[in-house]
């Protein structure tokens, strides 16, 4: 088991910088014009995974952005993924 | 340090990249067929691409002392066109006996559509019928969880498929468990923005162990880092891994998997 202090020594400043970047990103989105966007909704939902006490936060964040359905879609109308599931009606 | 780059799209890279990889300790490269970033207009485009993978690229790699291996398929991004897919599948046999071909790949799913599933099943049948290894691409971002499960279900439904001869690539925290639990190999792709970072890949190694798993750069025409594997190895060292653990993941594991093909030549000194 790795020593916690060593992990913090290695990664605290990097994680701190990324956290501030996330905060600044959310401020940037909020002060911009526009309405709801499923990607930002998913992003805010994913943030809740960080509050978990269990050690599977990364998995939960990934699942928050994931398509939860099980069946193949009828046809692929695009090649690209956008990072968040748009929902059945918009998929 | 010595390592294998088990998933690099070298046709998209420069000779400077080959040189940097060789200097960093790369001992061999393995290149799955993939989407060129644009749709090829006909089967002839694939024929030329397969010639490039089996004839030209090995010569380019050899200039830097690197053995070059490859995998053949039509990528799932081009699988919506069933007629084109069938035409491409029909020419793969012609290349399958080339000395650097290790198997069928990178097959899989992209948007998890019905046609992609049909073409995936045809690739699996081609591999099983010809006793080929399989290298699987799993979908990007929001499509990965569902696509990985669909791929595993298809592979498990074919009794000819042995999980230890299939690597499921681009795993992340929400898919690595299902892949390893079913006996398949798992690949972690180290990308700056999508897929896995070095730190997360090392976390996965800490949680799931060093067996049946490798790391790759999947360097291609997009944002990617040809030296991602040796950089991750450096991070493993910082994290406290010893040289034996690092060698296992970045060198011995790729050799263990790819050696299942008689065409893979194990580097000297293993």
Task: Provide a descriptive summary of the structure in words.
The complex is a heterodimer of chains A (91) and B (270). Chain A has helices at 4-31, 38-47, 57-64. With 91 residues, chain A is mainly alpha-helical. Chain B is α/β, with parallel strands linked by helices and 270 residues long. Chain B has a single domain (3-258), classed as TIM Barrel (Alpha-Beta Barrel), CATH 3.20.20. Chain B has an eight-stranded parallel β-sheet with strand order 1-2-3-4-5-6-7-8. In chain B, strand 7 (185-189), helix 7 (198-208) and strand 8 (213-216) form a beta-alpha-beta unit. The radius of gyration of chain B is 17 Å and the shape is globular. Chains A and B meet through helix 1 and helix 3 of A and helix 4, helix 5 and helix 7 of B.
Beta-strand portion of chain A reads: under 5%
| CATH topology tier name of chain B | TIM Barrel
Mean pLDDT of chain A: 94
Shape of chain B: globular
Average of the residue pLDDT scores of chain B: 97
Cα end-to-end separation of chain B: 13 Å
Which CATH architecture of chain B is right? Alpha-Beta Barrel
Strand percentage of chain B lies at: 5-15%
């Amino acid at each position: 088991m790795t020593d916690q202090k060593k992990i913090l020594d290695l990664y605290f400043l990097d994680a701190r910088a990324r956290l501030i970047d996330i905060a600044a990103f959310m401020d940037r989105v909020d002060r911009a014009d526009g309405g709801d966007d499923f990607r930002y909704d998913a992003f805010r939902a994913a943030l809740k995974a960080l509050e978990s006490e269990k050690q599977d936060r990364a998995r939960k964040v990934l699942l928050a952005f994931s398509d939860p359905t099980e069946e193949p879609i009828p046809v692929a109308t695009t090649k690209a993924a956008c990072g968040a599931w748009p929902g059945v009606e918009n998929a | 340090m010595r390592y294998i780059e088990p998933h690099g799209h070298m046709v998209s890279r420069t000779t400077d990249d080959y040189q940097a990889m060789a200097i960093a300790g790369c001992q061999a490269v393995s290149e799955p067929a993939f989407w060129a970033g644009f749709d090829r207009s006909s089967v002839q485009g694939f024929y030329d691409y397969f010639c490039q993978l089996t004839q030209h690229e090995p010569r380019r790699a050899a200039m830097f002392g690197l053995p070059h291996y490859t995998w053949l398929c039509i990528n799932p991004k081009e699988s919506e066109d069933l007629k084109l897919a069938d035409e491409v599948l029909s020419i793969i046999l012609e290349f399958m006996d080339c000395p650097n071909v290790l198997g069928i790949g990178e097959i899989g799913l992209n948007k998890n559509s019905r046609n992609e599933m049909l073409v995936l099943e045809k690739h699996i049948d081609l591999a099983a019928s010809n006793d080929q290894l399989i290298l699987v691409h799993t979908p990007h971002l929001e499509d990965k969880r569902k696509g990985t499960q669909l791929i595993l279900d298809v592979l498990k439904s074919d009794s000819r498929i042995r999980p230890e001869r299939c690597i499921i690539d681009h795993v992340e925290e929400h898919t690595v468990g299902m892949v390893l639990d079913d006996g398949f190999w798992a690949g972690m792709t180290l990308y700056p923005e999508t897929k896995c970072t070095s730190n997360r890949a090392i976390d996965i190694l800490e949680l799931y162990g060093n067996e049946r798993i490798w790391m790759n750069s999947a360097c291609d025409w997009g944002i990617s880092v040809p030296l991602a594997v040796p950089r991750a190895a450096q991070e493993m060292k910082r994290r406290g891994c010893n040289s034996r653990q690092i060698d296992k993941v970045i060198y011995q594991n790729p050799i263990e998997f790819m050696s299942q093909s008689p065409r893979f030549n194990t580097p000297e000194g293993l």
